[in-house]
Amino acid sequence: MTSFLRVFACVILTALTAASRPAEAAGEAATMPVALPPAIRMVACAPGAFSPPAAPTLRPIAAQVRHLDRAEITFHGGLTPDGGIQVEGRGGEFVFRKKSHSNGQFTIDLEGPGDKVGISLAEGAVTLTRGRRRVVLSTGSLNERELDAARVLLADSGAVRLARIAAAAVQESEDDSAAAVSLLIGDALVGMLSGDVGAPGRVARHLARRGRAGLRRAATTDCYGEWERRVLGASYDWESCARPFSVWNPIRNVCAFRWTLQVESYWFTFLSCTGFNSF
After folding, report:
1. Average pLDDT, the chain
2. Element spanning 263, H or E
3. Which of 143, 102, 101, 147 is nearest to 128 (CA)?
């Protein structure tokens, strides 16, 4: 099974990188191939099959603050000493903390009353921690036993429950700020790991909804336009990858991990491009 997943993922990644967007997308977004970040090499593909993109240049910034009224969360964002981006959100008894890197890898800390969950998405693995318990999932060779262990770990987590409530409120508000997007990308992963197999697809469609409808912001910047095109492409890739498999097939979750790494890398580049003006 592991060998099959490796071969399958390599074929999918190679085909999707070369493929153009479906005819239903308008303009440049309909033909732009997706540039996959290096962390998407989640299986043992041939060496040299992927060329890492140039790292974005981070602009010096002051810490940024944004309050999302619908979710009643205040976000603080800024750069970390190692060149990453950290976003922290607080609302009531809920705390969301996310540290991101240019290759799409990130860590999330969720805190609620008497509960704390840590999630780390890196090349090849997702690590979950809660108290003294720890679960590691291989993103290239998932099986139901690993997924069941993750669901059990998160099943009664108050921190996860508060995170999902906050993300649902943000999505309903249709807030497109970078702070909101950071929480939604995290929710796609948290939802999938806690048993909501439809979470990545819903977030993918939400982030790409304006591009699919051919809508553009008034005074759209080049930074936003590039972000929009990439997120739209990632949503089509998600659908192409996941469509052949039932919601119960572990390979569908490999597609979700790949989509998460893509959009997280694009989000990092977007913020780097705007200098946090989109926060």
Report:
1. 78
2. helix 250-274
3. 147
